[in-house]
Amino acid sequence: MTAAVPRTRVAGTIAELRAVVDERRAGGASVALVPTMGALHEGHLALVARARELADVVIVSIFVNPLQFGPGEDLDRYPRTLDADLAALDGLGVAAVFAPTVAEMYPGGAASTRVVAGEVGSLYEGASRPGHFDGMLTVVAKLFHIVRPDVACFGQKDAQQVFLVNRMVRDLDFPLAIEVVPTVREADGLALSSRNRFLSADDRRAALALSEALRAAEAAGPQGVEEVLAEADAAFGAHEAVQPDYLVVVDPATFLPVEPGATGEAVVLVAARVGSTRLIDNARIRLG
Ligand code: PAF
After folding, report:
1. Shared domain check, 221 and 89
2. How far apart are the CA of 42 and the centre of ligand 1, in A?
3. How far is the CA of 97 from the centre of ligand 1 (A)?
4. How many other C-beta atoms lie within 10 A of the C-beta of residue 141?
5. What is the pLDDT at residue 110?
6. Which residue has the least CA distance to atom 9 on ligand 1?
């Protein structure tokens, strides 16, 4: 018996990928891009499913982008599981996976030209991971230029990333739409993440502190931001193995912290180290 060969086409170079896209575009097809760093899980597959609804041709990129990892971060241990990723995408109607090497994406070494994420890029995730969002936006801008999609799908799980990508698209006039897909969770509330695989059984239980903090925040919303922070903080601090990084309530329009007494829509962002793994999560809540 011969092993099943994944049918998803893999383009390792920009030229190969462009050939696939150009051919389909010449036939009038619209194109959706799902940018990923691989280690695909159901959250990524939800992005692919949404992309299929929005366009004729779906391209998935799989590239662990060194530019968005700082010194001492988990670039080396970030899971690289291309064969399993291709198997997961098999049969989902993906026209091609773009899986370039680092040299293909950054032929001159560390890219000399970068997108600058600005003030919001230095807050929350950006404060803990300096340069992360400049690196993320740089690779996303490159992917947009390489694929030239009509729409690109991102997960709500990375709320700050989504905010910054939307702002880059607006500020730099990229001609495409951004589609935001809800976070996929385990039955007990844990948001799916490629990094969850690093959690021990104990860490996995402790990691629920993030989604529990968000639930507490949501319930306290009508009582205002101070109560939201107090309730969420109590839930967040309830697990010994959890080292909270930040817990903040932001205005979805500016991504800056809301003022005391604010009412209306807000986003609660949480981040923590659980064991050796850094996790983030967020939820939309209503204040007042
Ligand atoms: O969300 C991710 O996986 C990455 O930040 C992205 C958007 C693929 C850019 O490397």
Report:
1. no
2. 16
3. 15
4. 18
5. 77
6. 136
